[in-house]
Amino acid sequence: MSEPPLRPGCEDVASPADARNRRRANVWLFATMALYLGASATVRWRAGLPAFVPWAAITVLLGMAVATVRAYRRFLRGADELVRRIQTDALAVGFSVGAVVGLAYPLLETLGAPRLGAAAGFVAMMLAWGLASWLGARRYDGGS
Amino acid sequence: MNNRLRVLRAERRWSQAELAARLGVSRQTVNAIETGRYDPSLPLAFTIAREFGLKIEEIFQPE
After folding, report:
1. What ipTM was reported for this prediction?
2. Interface of B with A in 38-57 (CB under 8 A)
3. What is the C-alpha separation between B20 and A37, in angstroms, rounded?
4. Which residue intervals of chain A are DSSP H helices?
5. pLDDT digits (tens, 9 = 90+) for B21-49
């Protein structure tokens, strides 16, 4: 029986509940990242703003970050064992890369590397996690 | 690990999506098991065996 090719992230591959939970987690993640940029700008250029605005931006950012973590945990708990395995591998890769970059890059900065600040490790972690998730999904696809 | 999942599924004329729904997993998981890219956990192997009315060793064989 020939099967249509897999299209990762689509509802014909994942169960509808998995696809919905994944979409929800992604929406929260991108919204939080957008708010982080907004909050960073608000804090940096707070001189002309009322004093409560930067505090409010940070408070909302923290609330959204917690909501994002909850959405991701809901996705992981509801996902089947292969998806959990892919995500566990990706989290391990992301954590490792983030830890190494977070530790090593400040040393490289003192030797003249471009200054990225404390966010370097976090950005490296998120990029490595995303890339490892994508590669992991492809590793188990194909040949249907 | 080798398995006969694709053959057994074809005998019953189930699509991957149908089998995935019966097992409570994604079609990606069924596809990965059929192509030998992923070995299921023991609980999932038992569920698969129960769904086909067979013993685990009648579906999965060590390489």
Report:
1. 0.85
2. 38, 40-41, 44
3. 41
4. 16-44, 52-78, 81-110, 119-139
5. 999 998 989 999 999 999 999 999 999 99
